Amino acid sequence: MKIFVGLDCGGTKTVALASDKSGKIIGRGLSGAANPLSVGPNRTVENIISAINNAVFDIKKPDFGGIYIGMAGGKPAMLKEIQKRLKLSTYLKSADSIVVDHDLRIALYSGLPKGDGIVVIAGTGSAAWGLDLDGNEVLVSGWNHLLGETGGYELGIQAIIAATRAYDGRGPKTVLLENIIEAYQLDSFEDVSLVIRNSTDSPRIASLAPYVIDAAKKGDKVAFRILNEMIDEVDLSIKTAAKRCKIKGLLKVVMVGGMFTMDFPMIEELTKRVHKWNKKVTFVSPREEPVRAALRFAKSQN
């Protein structure tokens, strides 16, 4: 029996969904982050294989058909590198086909099956993507969370920076200082530099996002500023993508990622901003998990 697998690889987790040729779901597997820009190519490949293995755990010798991977941090050269490594791996080298793509395509088609619009992903990092009138891909942002992508990481790192300024007396007081002590279970805020040491701590930094949103809702001015700067950046990404895709009339925008599921009226705030430059905008929620779109693409490879 041929097994088809679709994967959605993000900066926090990796999800794999496996099915037979008829579409019957065989299993679902989870693993850690698989964004090569944040965790490196080696760990990315390890977590992709781990997620697939978890999805087909009950099958002794899986016979893989098509495998389609939507991956965050998907710049062309890196996509090719990850694809090469997977094809050479002992576990997957017999697969009929392995396609490694950026995660924006599966995100778009999870909300707009015809692909007639743009998608914005805002999770650990963020990016906007669509196709112009000539069928050319348009990508806005997506450089990686260390190079200015807005999203959960940006909220978290800005919260930490604001807290260090408040602690020193260089900036205004903010409840985020106490929130960080609580979140990281610190004896003293000064220990934060021992907890956060390098870019591979991105999931831990992004985990502070709910604290920022909660503080903003409760009136903390610093948290409110950080959150609104993020929303402004998402608006700018949408505007830039729409302009480069030459969309002048009705604009459909699929919203995907953890930032849009937080307990805050993100869509309402975005709508206010987008309406300043386009009154004909429709925000679309995914009809399904992006990993299901990936599974459909996996089956279409054969």
TrEMBL record:
Under the heading Pfam families, the entry gives:
BcrAD_BadFG
- Gene3D superfamilies reported for this sequence: 3.30.420.40
Q: Where is the ATPase BadF/BadG/BcrA/BcrD type domain?
A: 5-285
- Classification via InterPro entries: ATPase_BadF, ATPase_NBD, Euk-type_GlcNAc_Kinase
This protein is called: ATPase BadF/BadG/BcrA/BcrD type domain-containing protein
Which species expresses this protein natively?
Candidatus Roizmanbacteria bacterium CG_4_10_14_0_2_um_filter_39_13
